[in-house]
Amino acid sequence: MKRFVLKLTFGALFFILFCLPLALQAQTRFLVVDVGSAVSGSTSSSGVAINSLGNVVLSYDISHQSGLPAVWQNGVVTNLPVDGNRYATGIDRFGNVVGTFTGQSWGWVFRGGNYFIVPDQSWFSPNFFYATSRVQGMNDDGRFTGTISGLAPPGSYPAFTPATEAYSAFQLPTGEIQLQRFGSYNGQSTSGWGINELGDVVGAAGPATQSTPLLFRNGQIEELPRNGGPLNRGEGINNAGYAVGFVSSPGQTVGFYAGSGAVWDVRVPGSPQLTLVGQLQGSNQSWLYDINDAGVAIGKASLFNASVSLWSKPVIWTAAAGIQDLNALLDPASAGWEITDVRAINATGQIVGSARFNGSLRRAVRLDPQQAPMIRTKQPSSR
Question: I need a labelling partner for 39 at 20 to 30 A (CA). Which of 116, 161, 258, 361 fits?
Answer without folding.
Answer: 116
